[in-house]
Amino acid sequence: MAFHVEGLVAIVVFYLAILAVGIWAAWKTKNSGGEGDRSEAIIVGGRDIGLLVGGFTMTATWVGGGYINGTAEAVYVPGYGLAWAQAPIGYSLSLVLGGLFFAKPMRSKGYVTMLDPFQQLYGKRMGGLLFIPALMGEMFWAAAIFSALGATISVIIDINVNISVIISALIATMYTLVGGLYSVAYTDVVQLFCIFLGLWISVPFAMSHPAVTDIGFTAVHQVHQAPWLGSINSLDIYTWLDNFLLLTLGGIPWQAYFQRVLSSSSATYAQVLSFLAAFGCLVMALPAVLIGAIGASTAWNDTDYGFPDPMANKEADMILPIVLQYLCPVYISFFGLGAVSAAVMSSADSSILSASSMFARNIYQLSFRQNASDREIVWVMRITVFLFGASATAMALLASSVYGLWYLSSDLVYIIIFPQLLCVLFIKGTNTYGAIAGYLFGLVLRITGGEPYLYLQPLIYYPGCYPDENNIYIQRFPFKTLAMLTSFFTNIIVSYLAKYLFESGTLPPKLDFLDAVVARYSREHMDKATLVKSDNIVLNELAPVNPRHSLTLSSTFTNKEAFSYVDSSPELSNTEDN
Fold it and tell me: What SS3 state is found at 456?
């Protein structure tokens, strides 16, 4: 492959544009808010992200390199096709459900990260446990994106893949480091625009290439390969449903999503942003679907790509850049590829910021350093942004199966965090004992189900499992959803059982070593009066609590309006007097 100067110029132009926007947004962050809320400006953008920027950045949470390349690949691969391209519908429904049921309670209670309600109800230790799958999901997602980015750039210009990954990661980390959510949000606008414009300009040229058969005909007729509409085998229906539920429900409990929700100026705005992003995800998937269909309708022998085709060359995951490279005029190709390459970072920067936000607030500040100054928290965030960015880059360069690790970690988000989020927001009476039991049951059931991407054999063989070409057994049974439901009901059952045993006197109070039932409001648990307004919760839950209104705590919990509201609430005053 020859070195393409035009391709390099296109990438440099797009990267410089994104870096410039990121630095400008960082300057905007520095000039927003006072001295005491700099960390809040970095994590949730001062809670003043508007509809336009908010809609773009929430859409870009999912619409990145993995989403675009993965959708095109699913449509292209023979035997799968559009029927198995679940991400557009799955993530769109995820955003709709998030807006309908989760955005309002999370935003109205003034939380700063997704883990806040867990630490508030279940305590610091449980918050730390839930941080593990949340961190794994964000880090492996970023690593998978950087890995795909390096492969994409290698199609454009013949440079070392490792160099392209490192440079891309440095740029994404740099503007995230200095600007936080503002930089991520405003660069998302540019990146999403790049994807939209770059792909839609390329599609007509690719369609009109003489080697491409009419995609309307190849949708239902076999020409160069099986029809790209695809089909679902009756034996695979449960696998399809399991994966679809994983995308739809497992797409909700991500810090990258709730960071946008919590940055909204109101709970209603948070819901509207979710619905706008759901529509944006569908719109942004259209050119990727068309490019996948074009790849399936191309006689590759008649192009410069030659024989064998991308599927035989095991380059199906690269079908989008291959179509742009070989079926479009050179300048259109480089514009499209340069835009897509730069835009790949739109999800990676979100994941890095999400991971550092959760660590700085929920692990460092709330668990170890409640008296930490705002300046100290900002520096912890900056250091962890750099460390997490470097770690994601190292995994992208060194790990042989980054995507396998991401699949497993996203499964853990669905199986462990989603049922815990349901319980903490909607099921009254759950406690730390139930949360830990649900966590462990879900984890064990998922790991014992095996993971083909990591060559992990199952320990439990569910009905319908079969060996693949590597003799690794594939599960047809929807065991991931079974593990999620088991985790959910285990949490509820064990919580109520522990509550009954302690309150009935069957177990002595000294055995309540987690302070979850008898000493419900110990130091282990976050004081509800400091986090939420009294009209958002049942007042009798606040009765045993005397709010601590110290300077250090008010800087720790950013829902500052709750203090004045709680102090002036006659209902709460009467409750406390009792």
Answer: strand
pLDDT top residue among 21 and 532: 21
**In sequence order, what are the residues at sequence separation of 6 or more whose Cβ sits closer than 8 angstroms to the Cβ of residue 551?**
none
| DSSP code per residue over 408-435 | HHHHHIIIIIHHHHHHHHH-TT--HHHH
Place of tokens 């490019």: 291
Domains and CATH numbers, the chain: 5-398 (1.20.1730.10)
d(CA 445, CA 442): 5
Q: Choose among 332, 348, 325: nearest CA to 145.
A: 348
The mean per-residue pLDDT over the stretch 263-283 comes to: 92
Taking residue 501's Cβ as centre, other Cβ atoms within 10 Å add up to: 15
Instruction: For residue range 460-477, list pLDDT tens digits in order.
Output: 999 999 998 888 999 999
Query: 577: buried, middle or exposed (CB in 10 Å: 19+, 13-18, 0-12)?
Result: exposed
Helix count (H) and strand count (E) of the chain? 25, 2
Average the pLDDT over 33-58 and give the result. 74
Strand partners, 256: none
Q: Which residues contact 283 (CB under 8 A, 6 or more apart)?
A: 196
| Residue 538, helix vs strand vs coil | coil
In which band, very low, low, confident or very high, does the pLDDT at 531 lie, cut at 50, 70 and 90?
Answer: very low
Q: For residues 374 and 378, what is the distance between their CA atoms, to the nearest angstrom?
A: 6
AA identity, residue 117: P
Residue 286 pLDDT > 80: yes
Gap between the Cα atoms of 187 and 173, Å rounded: 12
b/e map 460-495, b = 16+ CB within 10 Å: eebeebeeeeeebbebbbbbbbbbbebbbebbbebb
| Helices 161-207 & 5-30 angle (0-180, nearest 10) | 110
Q: Which residues contact 133 (CB under 8 A, 6 or more apart)?
A: 409, 412, 413, 416, 417
Q: For 264-373, where are the alpha helices, taking DSSP H only?
A: 267-296, 319-327, 330-343, 345-358
Which DSSP state fits 363? I
Q: Rounded distance, CA 206 to CA 484, Å?
A: 43
Three-point CA angle 78, 79, 83, nearest 5°: 105
d(CA 225, CA 297): 8
The model's pTM is 0.85
The token pair that represents 351 in the structure block: 């994941």
**Per-residue confidence (pLDDT) for residue 17, from 0 to 100:** 83
Cβ(86)–Cβ(239) under 8 Å? no
